[in-house]
Design brief:
The structure holds two protein chains of two kinds.
Chain A: E1 5-7, E2 10-13, E3 19-24, E4 31-37, E5 44-50, E6 53-57, E7 64-68, E8 74-78, E9 87-94, E10 104-105, E11 109-113
Parallel strand pairs in A: 2-11
Antiparallel strand pairs in A: 1-3, 3-8, 4-5, 4-9, 5-6, 7-8, 9-10, 9-11
Chain B: E1 4-7, E2 10-14, E3 19-25, E4 32-37, E5 44-49, E6 55-58, E7 61-65, E8 71-76, E9 85-92, E10 99-101, E11 105-110
Classes of the chains: A mainly beta, B mainly beta.
Chain lengths: 114, 111
């Protein structure tokens, strides 16, 4: 158990809908990272937050947004969902006091858009 | 943008055999992280490397930070069935907190 908690584990929804994925980092970690993994693909970096502020951004679609709350949990919001958004979404956390720290991953949310 | 290419893409080996895989980049990395992912699960950190030439072991796993800083290697000795999974290299790009992942090496072990 990495200590990173993601909910829900599975999510099934329809095209055009909006969903929210939640992540609680390990105790003491200040940063969360979001990744998307499509079927049989690698992990694509979406966005990183540190202590409530956005710190790094990848190829995140405009339909997607994220935030990190004062209690350090984070939410990834996906809107106007398309079939191609079906994927595993992972959250990772680190203390993020320096670049190169280890990232610890949650078990992911499997999103299916029908 | 920066990419991490891993080879081989997949490998089928017999139980007991040693395994070697590598990860290469067109640009320099200052940190290499190796992860293993099993189906439906999140990546689990295996080994972290921070210095060029560094050799680090974790049980039957040994990883090396390439001298050029543009590559890294992972070896698994005496493979067992539970080694099955996808192995990813990863690292932060250009001193940022944007960690990218390699294309992965899918390992299957035949008992």
């Amino acid at each position: 158990d990495s200590g990173v908690t993601q909910t829900p584990k599975h999510l099934i929804t329809a095209t055009g809908q909006r969903v929210t994925l939640r992540c609680s980092p390990r105790s003491g970690d200040l940063s969360v990272y979001w990744y998307q993994q499509s079927l049989d693909q690698g992990l694509q970096f979406l966005i990183q937050y540190y202590n409530g502020e956005e710190r790094a951004k990848g190829n995140i679609l405009e339909r997607f947004s994220a935030q990190q709350f004062p209690d350090l949990h984070s939410e990834l919001n996906l809107s106007s969902l398309e079939l191609g958004d079906s994927a595993l979404y992972f959250c990772a956390s680190s203390v993020a006091t320096y670049v190169g720290e280890k990232l610890f991953f949650g078990s992911g949310t499997q999103l299916s858009v029908l | 943008g920066q990419q991490l290419n891993q080879s081989p893409q997949s490998m089928f080996i017999q139980e007991g055999e040693d395994v070697s895989m590598n990860c290469t980049s067109s640009s320099i990395f200052n940190t290499w992280l190796w992860y293993k992912q099993e189906p439906g699960e999140g990546p689990v950190l295996l080994i972290a490397l921070y210095k060029a030439g560094e050799l680090t072991s974790n049980g039957r796993l040994t990883a090396q930070f390439g001298i050029t800083r543009k590559d890294s290697f992972l070896n698994i000795s005496a493979s067992i069935p539970s080694d099955v999974g996808i192995y990813f290299c990863a690292g932060p790009t250009s001193g940022t907190y944007k960690y990218i992942f390699g294309t992965g090496t899918r390992l299957k072990v035949l008992a």
